[in-house]
Specification:
Blueprint (H helix, E strand, L loop, with lengths): L4 E3 L5 E3 L8 E5 L3 H11 L4 E5 L2 H7 L6 E4 L8 H10 L6 E5 L14 E4 L4 H37 L2 H5 L2 H22 L3 H12 L5
Parallel strand pairs: 3-4, 3-5, 5-6, 6-7
Antiparallel strand pairs: 1-2
Helix pairs in contact: 2-3, 4-6, 4-7
Length: 209
C-alpha cells in the first residue's frame, strides 16, 4: 500500500502523478464512483488505497495507514463496526467519518477524530487530512519532548555540570529539545480549539482497570 499508487474501488491499482509525501490514506467507501472521486482528489498528495466495504477495510488496514476516511452506511459491515474493530485492534491512526448520516448523540462514544457530512469536496478532505496529521505530529512530538526533558532533568540532577558541558550526547539532547520546541510551536500556531481537545483527549480518559 506504500508504493506511491492508489487502489480503486475494485481493488485495481493505478500510479500517482508523483510520489508525494509518505502519508498513507485508506478510503473506506462502498459506492464505487464516490470512492474513485475521492481517490482522484487525493492521490496527487498522498498514497491512497480504497476499500469497497467494511470487510475490505478490516483486511486492508495495517500499521502503515496514517489516516482513514470512513463511510458509516455500508451493506456488509457498517462504518461504526469497522471503527470499533480498528480501535479494538489497537489502531491509533486518526479516523474521519465521511457520511451522509447526520450526527446524533450516538456519536459521543465513537472513537473517530473528525465527522464530515456529505456532500464534501476536495478541500474538505485535504484540510481534514492535514489537520489530523498536524494533531498526530503534535502528539508524537509532545511525547518525545517530555521523554527528552525527563532525560535532561535526570542528567542535570546526577551528573556534574562540567562533565555535561563536555558531553556531545548531552549537547545533542539539548539541541533536539530545542528543535522539538520550535516544531511544536509552529504546529500549535495552526491549531483550533477542537484540535487541542482531540490531542489531549487520551489524557482525559480514565485509565482502564
Amino acid at each position: 500500500m506504500s508504493d506511491g499508487s492508489a487502489d480503486d474501488a475494485d481493488g485495481n491499482r493505478h500510479d500517482d502523478a508523483d510520489s508525494g509525501p509518505p502519508v498513507d490514506v485508506l478510503i473506506v467507501e462502498d459506492e464505487k464512483q464516490v470512492a474513485e472521486l475521492y481517490a482522484s482528489w487525493l492521490d496527487d498528495r498522498y498514497r491512497v488505497s480504497v476499500a469497497a466495504g467494511g470487510e475490505a477495510a478490516l483486511a486492508a488496514w495495517d500499521d502503515e495507514v496514517d489516516v482513514v476516511l470512513l463511510d458509516r452506511r455500508m451493506p456488509d459491515v457498517s462504518g461504526d463496526e469497522v471503527l470499533a474493530a480498528l480501535r479494538e485492534r489497537g489502531a491509533e491512526c486518526p479516523v474521519a467519518i465521511v457520511t451522509a448520516i447526520d450526527p446524533t448523540v450516538d456519536i459521543v462514544e465513537m472513537g473517530f477524530d473528525e465527522y464530515l457530512v456529505k456532500p464534501v469536496d476536495r478541500d474538505d478532505l485535504v484540510e481534514t487530512i492535514e489537520r489530523l496529521l498536524d494533531r498526530t505530529k503534535y502528539r508524537d512530538g509532545l511525547q518525545e519532548y517530555f521523554a527528552n526533558v525527563s532525560k535532561r532533568t535526570v542528567l542535570e540532577k546526577h551528573v556534574e555540570g562540567a562533565e555535561l558541558r563536555q558531553s556531545e550526547a548531552y549537547e545533542r539532547l539539548q539541541s533536539r529539545i530545542e528543535e522539538i520546541e520550535t516544531d511544536l510551536e509552529a504546529t500549535l500556531y495552526r491549531f483550533e480549539d477542537r484540535d487541542f481537545r482531540a490531542v489531549f483527549r487520551e489524557f482525559e480518559e480514565p485509565a482502564a482497570e
